[in-house]
Structures are given as C-alpha cells and as structure tokens.
Amino acid sequence: MLLLLLLQVSICLAQTSKPAPSNIRGAQYPQITSDSRAIFKMRAPDAVKVQLDLGRKYDMTKNSEGFWEVTTDSLTEGFHYYSLIIDGVAVADPASETFYGMSRMASGIEVPFKGDDYYAVKDVPHGDIRIKRYYSEVLKSWRTFYMYTPAGYDQNTTQKYPVLYILHGGGEDQRGWATQGKTDLIIDNMVAAKKAVPMIVVMMDGNIPSRGFGEEALNTFEKELKESVIPFVEKNYRVKTDANSRALAGLSMGGMQTLGAGLKNTQMFAYLGVFSSGWWANQPDLSNPQYEYMKNNAATINKNLKQFWIAMGGKEDIAYQNCKIMLGKFDEMKIKYSYSEYPGGHAWPVWRNNLYNFAQLLFK
Amino acid sequence: MLLLLLLQVSICLAQTSKPAPSNIRGAQYPQITSDSRAIFKMRAPDAVKVQLDLGRKYDMTKNSEGFWEVTTDSLTEGFHYYSLIIDGVAVADPASETFYGMSRMASGIEVPFKGDDYYAVKDVPHGDIRIKRYYSEVLKSWRTFYMYTPAGYDQNTTQKYPVLYILHGGGEDQRGWATQGKTDLIIDNMVAAKKAVPMIVVMMDGNIPSRGFGEEALNTFEKELKESVIPFVEKNYRVKTDANSRALAGLSMGGMQTLGAGLKNTQMFAYLGVFSSGWWANQPDLSNPQYEYMKNNAATINKNLKQFWIAMGGKEDIAYQNCKIMLGKFDEMKIKYSYSEYPGGHAWPVWRNNLYNFAQLLFK
C-alpha cells in the first residue's frame, strides 16, 4: 500500500516536472517541478562524491546505474547561479547554458513563476542586442560592451533615443544584463505596453584591471565611463545627449560605481538607479570622501536628479545593512531618494524586477 | 648537474609561457608556451583521476599540493575545443571561456600563431555583432540568429549591403561563427584592407528540431531559410535582394545544408561555400536525390553560380573521403566548382581560414 503510494507520488512528480528553460537544447535535466523544486540528475559512475551548490549545498546520491540525483527544496523565482561539485571541484553543469558570474562561466537555472510574464518572449516588436568592440584610451586596451537598441532603431533613421547605462556586479561582465538580466525582453515588453519609452541600454564592462575595488578603481571607472564609453556611444549611435536623456544604474559593485560616478556627475545624468548596494560601513576611507562630496553638493544633487532610485532585495540581501546605514547618512544630509524592497536577496530575480520598475520612470 | 639543467629548463618554460587568450579574465592557466604547447594546471585535491581531452586524451598528474598538471605536445594554430575529465565526467574547464560545441558548453583554447593576423583586433573600423530574435512560422517557435553588420551600416542609411548566410556545424549553433569563428574580426580586417566588400553576415541557427539529420531535416532547413530567415532579414535590414548579392556557406553539417538548399536555389544564391563537408557516401537515400537534381539541372547550376567554392581541412579532415567521392560525381556531371585544401582537419582554424578566402571572392 505504502509502496503503491510512493509509486504514485513518483509518477505524479515525473508527470509534472519539465526541463529547465536554461538547459542546453535537448538536455532533460535539470527539471523543474510544478512546485518549483529542481531535480538534478547526471551520470558519473566513477565519482566518489557529487554535490549541487545552489548557494546552499545539496549532497547528491548515486543509484546503481551510476546516476547522481537530488531534488531541491522549492526554489524562488527566476535565475539562480549553480555549480556541480565533482569530487571537490566546482564546475559548470554540462547540461546547462553557462553565464559569466562568480568570476567564471557558471551554470544557471531558470525557475518559471507566475509573475514572469514581464520577461517572457512575446509577439511584440523586438529590439537587437549588439556586441560592440571599442578601444579605450583610458585603459589602453580593446574592450567590449553589449547594447540594446529598441525595435524601430534601424527604421526610424532620424529619431534619437535616450540612453540607460547599466552596470553588472562583481565577478560578472558586460554579458550579465543581456543574458542573466533579460534586458531586451524586459524593455521590449514595456515599450510595447507603453509602460516605458523606447530607449537604448548600454551594458558596459565595469571591470577595471586593478587590484581590488577601491578609490582608484572607482575613479578609473568614472574616467572610462565619461571619456571612453559615453563619447563612443554618442558618436556612433543616434542618442540624445542631454542629462534628462541619460540614466546610470547598476547592481552591487555596479551600484557603488553608480553612486560614485553618478552623484559626482548629476549634470550628466538625471536618473540614477542603485540596486542591492551601499557603501561599505566598515570602509570609511572609501565612503567618507563620497559622503563629503554629497554634503557639499546636496542642493545640486537634489536639483539635478529626477530619480535617485534605490532598491534592495529584502532583509536577506547581503548589502542590506550597508544600504541602511548609507540611507541614514543621506537622510542627515537631506539627499532625496526613493527606496523600495523586493524579496529575493542579492540575486538576478531581484535585479530584473528592479530594471522593470526603474525603466518605467525614465525619460518621461 | 642534471638537476640544475632540469631547473633551468623549467625556469625557461615558466618565462616563455603565457595565459591563453581564451581564458576567463584573470585565469593563469591554461598557458601557451612559445613552441605552442599548452600547460594545464588545476586544483582538485580530492579527485582520483583527471584527464585533459583535446581530441587526444592526456592523463594529468597530481602534485603534493593537490594540483593536477599536464603539458601537451605542440598544438596546431588557433581554436581547439577541449574538456577536462574529472573522475570520468567530461566538463568545461572553470578557467576557460565556454563555447557551444559538441552539443554543450565546451571549453576552447586559442593558440596564437604567426599567421593569425587576419583575425587580430586591429585599429580599423569595427562592425557590430547583433543578436536577433524572430518568430519562425515554419518551426512555430521563437528562434535567434547572430548577425554581423559592417562598420558604417548605422551611418550610411541609404546604402544596401549584400548578405552572406553562414552555417555552423553539428552540435553547434548560431553563436559558432560569431565566437569560435571570429567572423566580425575577419571581415572587419578584410574590408579595411579592401580585400572584401562591406557585407552583412547572417549566422542562423541551423538546428532543426527533428530526429537526426536526414531528408526531412534538410527540407525543413531549406524552408526555414527561404521562408523565415531571408524574408525577415530582407524586411528588417538594408540588404540587396538579387542573387548576385546573396551567398550561402556552411561547415560540416552546414556544408550539407548549403549543398542541399543552395544547389536547389541557385536563382537565389550566386555564391556557395562548402567547408569540410560532402554527402555521406554510404547514405545513397539522402545523396542520390541530390545528385539526380544536380544532373537534371547542371546547366542552370553552372550558369547561375559565380562561385561554387569547396574546401577541405586536408586529408586529416573526417569529411575528406565523402567529399572526394562527391567531387567525382560532380566531375561526371560536369558541375563546375573550385576546390582547395588547408591543413588542420575538421576544426575551426580551417573554417576561419575558409571564411577568409571565400569572403574575398564575394559580391565583386
């Protein structure tokens, strides 16, 4: 009787799980169940220990045919990085597409959820993602940015567009917002629904070749943005060049770059978006000069910015405390900002949602 | 004395090896020596056996600190897929960029060589790589192609461009020619040197969801090319639409698709390129109807085609025998073609060179 019940449960599971949309074509596993658990299964007859690392580590168990398997707890919405750990070595899952994150090509699993309609591929006009090489005189090297041009950009050859410059996090690169972020689909859908105006989104490489992330890296980033990327974009693409037609936003490390380069240049950017970020409370060497600048320029910042939009992935976001302390300083200085939270922690599902909400406010 | 000599040899090796250009940023290994050997080194203290699979398998050896290492024999020029096999599981190297090949995200190692100047990043005008979604009525699904638009495409808004449609091999997809193939750099450099005319290159997804690769898949591919991709490109981009301004080329599986769809449609394509391919000599069911069509239409094919360009990666190419038998049939039918060989087998270094030579002949 119990056996029958177990059999039914397992049949039921089998019927309601489907390959994850992030799998490479044809890969049957990982699968997602109807209650958002993920089933991982891979063949490794000679391995001694296989684990799944989804932020939380799961031990996988081996069956008699050499397949290792595990079913996770319910996963939250959207995109999650993961690794397989095969006898101690963390590697990408051969069954998954890979994404540059955690400073390497990592696996990602996409968990469908009820509210994922805003980045679904729909029958609406679609823009292009472009990959563009440019030579940086600042960094003395060839670099690459990704860029979204909205539907109609190629046809409307006299129209100029506003630009959102958007930044990835640490251990990621210019590919992040295009792949993990689904930027093209989010903007395509919003433009079609008239929730956002057609805009160009420049996804630049925020990595600065230097040791760590300190004041020097921050200043070099600002120089790269102002002297390389923006002039290149404004020379080569049909974009509006007034401050009201420029936005700057970023997540985590990119949020700090936005705070650093954005607040010092509000004559260039009328919109700033800071996702899951905040100056480190325990690094006053880095943050104090920033606060000092803000204090001395609070009136200008408040006057110039149409949006200073700060968002956090709930209390579970690793940047939560830093952000809270930073917002306290902003309040003392009477710097105006908006603040919102969306649960999900320090992760792409939150940042997709941040882009969705922030982009609606831009260039209107 | 011997020890001293060994020490000097190892110092010498250390001085003349550099991280491969295909590594993820910051990764020190794999390295390439000045005599084109590759040194692989990775930490895996708990693994029992680690191998490197570069087509040929190498056993790696573990040192006392848990690092596994191997130095390969001299590698031939350019790009090679590889895997690490950790206790029997073939995975991508966490230190490498990944490339969709062998039906999964595989590692690739780029071996610099004296003749690699033709795909070097140079101070010349650069085109864009675009990623474009489209809905296929033929396949009833959303698909993606990659497209190269040459430098000046955005500025010269009345100019129309010829188009090369180019196809990847089995186990690859629309990303192959853009990443493994370095299509943008090859064309950028040739256009700047006036060796090739500015052209658009459409890198379509040649995978047809069906079992295997037979007549049905071939016919569906032809339908997808003619009814989905070409009309979409011609509607949305500034392209010339006469046969003399259209070329079709492909490698391996894509070469067969070019033979199949190209030869039946020489009223559409004045240029065909077939790289490392040929009808399977042991599958007359697939090839005989093709030969029959060619026999009945030899005069039209010869009249319409300005180039029927066939190339092989030397005798070591797995398609060599099939191609040779096919060319014998072409000779019997008096079908005109050009044939050339470039050593390197069934691999991307050959196909990059094929594109370089083929593109120079186009649209002149």
How would you sum up this structure, described in words?
Two copies of one chain form a homodimer. Chain A has 364 residues and is of the alpha+beta class. Chain A has two domains: 98 residues, Immunoglobulins (Immunoglobulin-like); 243 residues, Alpha/Beta hydrolase fold, catalytic domain (Rossmann fold). Helices cover 29% and strands 27% of the residues of chain A. Chain A is built from eight helices and 19 strands. In chain A, the strands form three sheets. An eight-stranded mixed beta sheet of chain A has the order 12-13-15-14-16-17-18-19, sandwiched between helices. In chain A, strands 4, 5, 8, 9, 10 and 11 form a six-stranded antiparallel beta sheet that branches. In chain A, strand 18, helix 7 and strand 19 form a beta-alpha-beta unit. In chain A, helix 2 runs parallel beside helix 8 and helix 3 crosses helix 4. Chain A is globular. The model of chain A has no long low-confidence stretch (mean pLDDT 95). At the A-B interface, strand 9 and strand 12 of A face strand 9 and strand 12 of B. Strand 12 of chain A pairs antiparallel with strand 12 of chain B.
